[in-house]
Amino acid sequence: MLPHSVINQTFERFPDFSTEDFEVSPLEKGGSDRKFYRIQAAGQHSMIVVKYSSQKEENRHYVDIAQFLAAAGVRVPKIYFHDPEEGLIWMQDLGHDDLWAYRAEPWEIRRPLYEAALTEVARMHTSATRRIEGAGIRLEREFSEQLYLWEQGYFFEHCLGAHFGLDAATVQRYATLPALTGIADHLAHLPRVLVHRDFQSQNILIHQGAAWLIDFQGMRPGLPQYDVASLLYDPYVTLSGSERDHLLAYYQQAARREGLEIAPDFEQVYHECALQRLMQALGAYGFLGLHKGRADFLAHIPAARRSLREVAARLDGLDPFVKLLDSLP
């Protein structure tokens, strides 16, 4: 429950809430270490209160990034007040529905919502990127060869090792496959833009028919294909091959309109980024499920593993890796 001190601060800063009956509801938010609450007043006024820990550096920069993205034309929640000493943020309530909530709807309903989300992230990749120099925004470490290799290692340690129980020698043999280390090297040498870093269906709110981005505190320089792959190979949602193809083509058109150059190898890089993102996600599921008491994340491993196998089969030099994935129980 939201501490009474925070409720009192809310009344002081937002007098409309102090004269009405109100209800405080905790909100579940994935694997986040932050706590989210909705304060709903009887007169239909509502807002979201976020309590964050200073242990993760990126949490302290959420407000600055939100205001920066809004100025760049990206739809994000409006910040009403920030108390950095207490680790509290009061911000706009965009409702209950994220993109994930539409996962069972017909494609005719989901398609424009996915397109809206891709349009917003394309603005991050272009308009926000053009504005970042001199903006004074603290970003997380950029995607580099070291970070791509860390993602791969995260998968081998927490998914293949801890979850599937592969021995250390086997893990090491596959972790050093030249094709995998080569992908990390290749991606690290490509031009970067600002990326969301966790662009998946539960981090996209649907409000009044528009897509709004949240959980962007991990924004950093990286590849646009990483964000696109994060959404189109989201383990929380099943997209068909034709749906993925449509959305990939849509993103490229939207990004071109925003001024992004689409290189001839865009789709090759997209699949390499999908490999990276899925390895990172599988590592996170293993870590959260086995070390943080979040067994619910382990349920997403089969879907993510199938997608990883599909992507790996598209890339040269990964036949041994594909066979390893096929051999897992």
UniProtKB/TrEMBL annotation:
Residue ranges annotated for the Aminoglycoside phosphotransferase domain, each copy included: 24-257
Cross-referenced PANTHER family: AMINOGLYCOSIDE PHOSPHOTRANSFERASE-RELATED-RELATED
Pfam family, one: APH
Gene3D superfamilies given in the database record: 3.90.1200.10, Phosphorylase Kinase, domain 1
Stated name of the protein: Aminoglycoside phosphotransferase domain-containing protein
